[in-house]
């Protein structure tokens, strides 16, 4: 959430100028000294405080979730508490956005009306990535509606930024940049699934003269360049990948290689989804990686959660996992007590099949 929470630094008042003493008119005349103006020493800006970033997995509005969009302001009421404690919240929008178009010849096609973006903004989401295998489910004409809805969301109140799609490749790989408690955070989205899903959506890749998705399966170059450029001009770089193999709780070799390339390019954190399963988290050198955040707002019940990272001086310094369960209504609700401890232990254990180390 962009409203500065407890992480905001408090800046004290600057130094007060000393009072100027003048001679009384009744005093005998005396030689006049040349007045010497005093300039207060500029107060140095304090170092930015910690920034918290809440991360959730896949979101769509299929099945029982569709009717909730009749009231976007309250559609995701149960989600808001899971995100509200953070300065910035990011999820993956696993759906096209619009009201029509030409359906693609694929098994699963998702489309939500533009009010879906309003619902996400109302729930406290600041950035969504749409770099995935559903962004163009309703063809080029449907995708034009998606881009128009994204522009409207960016201009909304509160604003919601959409990354990972665009009118051309440069726009699709461009980051959303937000300033949070004195820290600039750049968020980039990209699609790099390495299962048959990628084959069916390869033609969706944005190019120099074609709208589309930030696709990186065959060429990591544009994404690496985008991350390197963002790292050079921002304090924190978050890369949200749509990657891996559906149904797998361990990262693929492609995920590991991509994470390494992005870490070397300067990413602060690399997170992802697509497997519809939770995957392990931890450090890859100094880059924090969360290979899979699973489903979040989804029509199929199951375990989920929100990962909140605390970033200080450009590095992830803390992590918090809030375990939750997706109910039959499609909405996640935090679990408590022994069940929360069990699910948290299971989530931590997913690190065992990764190349990551625990955050110390």
Description:
This protein is an alpha/beta fold and 360 residues long. The protein has a single domain (51-353), classed as Metallo-dependent phosphatases (Purple Acid Phosphatase, chain A, domain 2), CATH 3.60.21.10. It is 22% helix and 27% strand. The chain contains 8 helices and 18 strands. It has helices at residues 80-83, 115-122, 139-154, 169-173, 196-201, 221-233, 253-265, 337-349, and strands at 51-59, 88-93, 96-97, 111-112, 127-129, 161-163, 165-166, 176-180, 183-193, 212-213, 236-244, 269-273, 281-284, 287-290, 295-297, 302-312, 315-326, 332-334. The strands form 4 sheets. Strands 1, 2, 5, 6, 15, 16, 17 and 18 form an 8-stranded mixed β-sheet that branches. Strand 16 (302-312) and strand 17 form a beta hairpin. It is globular and about 50 Å long. The model is unreliable at 2-41 (pLDDT under 50).
Q: Which labels suit this protein?
A:
360 residues; 18 strands; 6-stranded mixed β-sheet; Purple Acid Phosphatase, chain A, domain 2; alpha/beta; 27% strand; disordered N terminus; single chain
């Amino acid at each position: 959430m962009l409203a500065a929470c407890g992480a905001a630094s408090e800046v004290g008042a600057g130094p007060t100028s000393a009072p100027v003493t003048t001679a009384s008119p009744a005093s005998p005349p005396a030689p006049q000294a040349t007045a010497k103006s005093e300039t207060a020493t500029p107060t140095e800006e304090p170092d930015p405080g910690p920034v918290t970033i809440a991360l959730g997995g896949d979101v769509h509005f299929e099945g029982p979730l569709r009717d909730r969009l009749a009231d976007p302001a309250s559609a995701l009421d149960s989600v808001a508490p899971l995100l509200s404690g953070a300065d910035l919240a990011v999820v993956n929008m696993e759906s096209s956005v619009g009201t029509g178009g030409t359906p693609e010849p694929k098994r699963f096609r998702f489309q939500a009306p533009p009010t879906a973006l309003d619902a996400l903004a109302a729930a406290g989401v600041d950035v969504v990535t749409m770099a995935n295998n559903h962004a163009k489910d309703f063809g080029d004409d449907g995708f034009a509606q998606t881009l128009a809805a994204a522009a409207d969301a960016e201009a909304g109140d509160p604003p919601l930024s959409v990354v990972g799609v665009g009118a051309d490749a440069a726009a699709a790989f461009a980051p959303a940049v937000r300033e949070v408690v004195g820290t600039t955070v750049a968020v980039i989205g990209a699609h790099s699934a390495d299962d048959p899903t990628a084959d069916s959506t390869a033609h969706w890749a944005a190019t120099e003269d074609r709208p589309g998705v930030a696709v990186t399966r065959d060429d990591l170059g544009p994404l690496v360049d985008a991350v390197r450029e963002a790292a050079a001009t921002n304090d924190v770089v978050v890369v949200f990948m749509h990657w891996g193999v559906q149904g797998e709780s361990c990262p693929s070799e492609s995920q590991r290689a991509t994470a390494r390339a992005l870490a070397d390019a300067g990413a602060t954190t690399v997170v992802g989804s697509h497997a519809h399963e939770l995957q392990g988290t931890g450090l890859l050198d100094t880059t924090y990686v969360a290979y899979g955040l699973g489903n979040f707002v989804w029509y199929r019940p199951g375990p989920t959660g929100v990962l909140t990272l605390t970033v200080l001086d450009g590095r992830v310094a803390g992590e918090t996992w809030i375990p939750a369960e997706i109910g039959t209504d499609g909405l996640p609700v935090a679990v408590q007590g022994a069940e929360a401890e069990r699910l948290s232990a299971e989530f931590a254990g997913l690190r065992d099949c990764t190349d990551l180390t625990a955050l110390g």
